[in-house]
DNA sequence: CCGATACGCATTTTT
DNA sequence: TGCGTATCGG
């Protein structure tokens, strides 16, 4: 059945689909049918002279690629859809790199280091260099190096760049460039690439080997990029190399939804696309097909507060709909209760399925109170994100064996399993091996096999143990290129002693481990049979399995088991939609998160994140905040998020119009919304008492407690402390207390249960 | 080399 | 609070 492009697309969507003569930028507002444009465009290309393998389509996640492929399969044919080069940057480029590895001095069996491997290696390096780990925190070091790689800065360039050096010095980490160089070499020595390397080396491959580049230019005659606002400089540069000649490129994205800069994404890529590709045709998809008018307008009013953006006016032709509802709760626990109640109510009275609800939070740690509340209410839920299957300890151990068998120079895999299961090869011995490998500039495996040749200072006994380990790995290696992955893995798990270790006892806490192990084996079995059918090339190797899972995440295993409320971070919600969305924890310090600090850019990104959250909602959107919150083991005072002020109040309403709400935002909503309604309580925001001011309120008086600044008080959890500061009025009196044991705390007097000691 | 305890420190996350 | 790493004693 032919596709009727005109009827099935709106005017601008259609224009964007059929324009393929030069570079195009599709700015796709939230819910404006972005995926629709991409799928129809690819179908259109396929019907107009492009073979599937001539089309390179890059997506942000594997899941997005898979879903798009399915949709295209329905439009053209399964076979042609399968032949498309569609996937994430990382997965497609890793495929290319596996083929072209030799150009870059890598072995095709190279390992892909995940973030944990990267951090572990960086920690070792910092230690070896004798750097203070209090200053050189692994996370910080990793993110600086990652940022450099995303900007295509080689270690040598890094070391000689003055700006970078000064920046590192400011962060008191002047040795980063040394760590970077060391890390770079160690990865090469281990025949390993990290996630950033997959991009960096692809860039280098294309830059340094023109014949290789032209081969791929020849193949990828049309390039499409989804979620362009979240691409980084390396990705931009690779794409630029590929399309330089033909300029057949279409990128799709929404600058208002750029939320991954912490991972190197550069919003300038989309903002400046038209400058880089002259003659760019710009298409703006502004009609939102997802949400009510109110939701769209509320989101617009919010995003207007950002400076840097491409002008657009997103609109909806749906019902005007209800205002966004603002909830205030005493505490995080009550917030959970309120949300659960509301879900129950909407489920029963408006017949929404539980799958129509999502609870979105800024940080994963917030999920717990909602889990508990939902459980109390007997509502089934599903949490997205968190630890992925392949990140679990026991799974990583097994995978490390696979990795070492496929690539015996994989340092991180080696360190992980050389003494698991315990075979009495300790840290000291491992350190000797690594040092020797570095000093002699030979591979790990070389030392491991012939420790005596390199004069390792080890005992006979240790040497024997090493030899056993070596022979074990070697015995697996003999078969690794012939036997299929399933047989290999069973063999490895048995003979390595893992099986013994996991099954030796019947402790209940080991049950999960066993189940996970079995799931892994079953997974490998399935992988082999599916691959075998798909590509009918014999046999499916362990290496194939490894490259598959290195770039796979839990996001990909979406089991839609039954009617469940979804819980996830706002980041994880990108691209999804729900009838009813609860955005929780709308508090200063949480959302926007305190980590953004002073940076205006970072604040804008948080605002975009809030924009993403709101625009997930089709019908109802609820915003909630709590006045006190349990965090890091203590109860803390919280203020409503400034973002609540950024949404035009005419799109907001309070859940219950009671006196209960006394903060500024509530007062504003009430005043502006219900005009001239009798104000039964004062606008407390005006009366916040500045520090040290000696007024009546420095002597706070509530039903059960009276405290003065300077007094010594006792708290049932925090113990003895001194009152430093008192601010606020009546219900919301806040006291700052310096506790002897736990330091400074801000508490709501109403809840603090203080006892005056002196 | 291993286990137990102490300490310190906390986003977001896909690849 | 709760996890992951550091350190110490056996």
UniProtKB/TrEMBL annotation:
GO molecular function: 3'-5' DNA helicase activity; ATP binding; DNA binding; hydrolase activity
Keywords for the protein's UniProt record, in alphabetical order: ATP-binding, DNA-binding, Helicase, Hydrolase, Isomerase, Nucleotide-binding
Residue ranges crossing the lipid bilayer per the database entry: none
Ranges where the UvrD-like helicase ATP-binding domain occurs: 7-292
GO cellular component: a single term: DNA helicase complex
Gene3D superfamilies with a match to the protein in the record: 1.10.10.160, P-loop containing nucleotide triphosphate hydrolases, PCRA, domain 4
Signal peptide: none
Catalytic activity: Couples ATP hydrolysis with the unwinding of duplex DNA by translocating in the 3'-5' direction; ATP + H2O = ADP + phosphate + H(+)
Start and end residues of each UvrD-like helicase C-terminal domain: 293-575
Biological process (GO), any one: recombinational repair
EC number from the UniProt entry: 5.6.2.4
Matching InterPro entries: DExx_box_DNA_helicase_dom_sf (IPR013986), DNA_helicase_UvrD-like_C (IPR014017), DNA_helicase_UvrD/REP (IPR000212), P-loop_NTPase (IPR027417), UvrD-like_ATP-bd (IPR014016)
Assigned protein family: Belongs to the helicase family. UvrD subfamily.
UniProt xrefs under PANTHER family: ATP-DEPENDENT DNA HELICASE SRS2, UVRD / RECB / PCRA DNA HELICASE FAMILY MEMBER
Protein name per the record: DNA 3'-5' helicase
């Amino acid at each position: 059945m032919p596709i009727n492009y005109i009827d099935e697309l709106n005017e601008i969507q259609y224009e964007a689909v059929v324009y393929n003569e030069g570079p195009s930028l599709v700015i796709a507002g939230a819910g404006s049918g972005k995926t629709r444009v991409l799928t129809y465009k690819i179908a259109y290309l396929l019907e107009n002279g492009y073979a599937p393998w001539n089309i390179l389509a890059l997506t942000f996640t594997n899941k997005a690629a898979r879903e798009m492929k399915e949709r295209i399969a329905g439009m053209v044919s399964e076979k042609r859809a399968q032949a498309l080069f569609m996937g994430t940057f990382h997965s497609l480029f890793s495929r290319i790199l596996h083929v072209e590895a030799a150009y870059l001095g890598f072995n095709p069996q190279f390992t892909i280091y995940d973030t944990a491997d990267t951090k572990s290696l960086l920690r070792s390096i910092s230690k070896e260099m004798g750097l203070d780990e209090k200053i050189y925190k692994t996370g910080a070091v990793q993110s600086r190096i990652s940022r450099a790689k995303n900007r295509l800065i080689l270690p040598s360039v890094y070391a000689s760049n003055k700006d970078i050096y000064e920046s590192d010095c400011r962060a008191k980490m002047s040795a980063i460039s040394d760590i970077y160089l060391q890390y770079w070499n160690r990865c090469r020595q281990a025949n390993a690439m990290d996630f950033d390397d997959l991009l960096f080396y692809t860039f280098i491959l294309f830059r340094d080997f023109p014949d290789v580049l032209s081969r791929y230019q020849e193949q990828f005659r049309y390039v499409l990029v989804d979620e362009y606002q979240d691409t980084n400089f390396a990705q931009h540069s690779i794409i630029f190399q590929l399309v330089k000649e033909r300029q057949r490129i279409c990128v799709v994205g929404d600058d208002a939804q750029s939320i991954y800069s912490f991972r190197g994404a550069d919003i300038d890529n989309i903002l400046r696309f038209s400058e880089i590709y002259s003659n760019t045709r710009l298409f703006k998809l502004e009609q939102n097909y997802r949400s009510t008018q109110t939701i769209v307008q509320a989101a617009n009013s919010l995003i207007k507060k950002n400076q840097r953006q491409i002008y657009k006016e997103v609109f909806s032709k749906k019902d005007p709909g209800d205002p966004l509802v603002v909830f205030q709760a005493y505490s995080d626990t009550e917030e959970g209760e309120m949300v659960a109640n509301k879900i129950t109510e909407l489920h029963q009275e408006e017949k929404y399925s539980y799958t129509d609800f999502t609870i979105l939070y800024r940080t994963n740690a917030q999920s717990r109170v909602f889990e508990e509340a939902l459980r109390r209410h007997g509502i089934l839920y599903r949490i997205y994100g968190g630890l992925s299957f392949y990140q679990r300890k026991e799974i990583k151990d097994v995978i490390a064996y696979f990795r070492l068998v496929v690539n015996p120079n994989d340092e991180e895999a080696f360190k992980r399993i050389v003494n698991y299961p315990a075979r009495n090869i300790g840290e000291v011995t491992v350190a000797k091996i690594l040092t020797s490998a570095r000093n002699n500039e030979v591979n790990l495996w070389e030392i491991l096999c012939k420790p005596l040749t390199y004069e390792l200072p080890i005992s006979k006994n240790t040497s024997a143990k090493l030899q056993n380990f070596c022979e074990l790995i070697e015995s697996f290696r003999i078969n690794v290129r012939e036997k299929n992955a399933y047989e290999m893995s069973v063999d490895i798990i048995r003979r390595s002693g893992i099986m013994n270790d996991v099954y030796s006892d019947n402790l209940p806490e080991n049950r999960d481990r066993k189940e996970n192990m079995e799931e892994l084996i079953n997974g490998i079995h399935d992988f082999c049979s599916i691959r075998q059918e798909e590509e009918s090339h014999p046999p499916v190797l362990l290496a194939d399995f490894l490259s598959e899972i290195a770039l796979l995440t839990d996001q990909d295993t979406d089991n839609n088991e039954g009617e469940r409320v979804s819980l996830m971070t706002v980041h994880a919600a990108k691209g999804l939609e729900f009838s009813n969305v609860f955005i929780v924890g709308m508090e200063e310090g949480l959302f926007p998160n305190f980590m953004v600090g002073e940076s205006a850019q970072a604040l804008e990104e948080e605002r975009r994140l809030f924009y993403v959250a709101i625009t997930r909602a089709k019908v109802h959107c609820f915003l909630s905040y709590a006045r006190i919150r349990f965090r890091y083991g203590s109860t803390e005072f919280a203020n409503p998020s400034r973002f609540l002020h950024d949404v035009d109040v005419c799109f907001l309403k309070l859940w219950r119009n009671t006196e209960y709400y006394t903060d500024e935002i509530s007062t504003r909503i009430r005043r502006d919304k219900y005009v001239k309604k009798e104000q039964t309580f004062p606008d407390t925001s005006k009366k916040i008492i500045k520090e040290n001011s000696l007024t009546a309120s420095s002597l706070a008086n509530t039903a059960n407690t009276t405290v003065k600044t300077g007094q010594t008080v006792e708290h049932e959890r925090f113990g003895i402390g001194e009152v430093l500061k008192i601010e606020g009025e009546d219900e919301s009196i806040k006291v700052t207390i310096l506790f002897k044991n736990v330091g400074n705390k801000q508490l709501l007097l109403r809840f603090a249960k203080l006892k005056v000691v002196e």
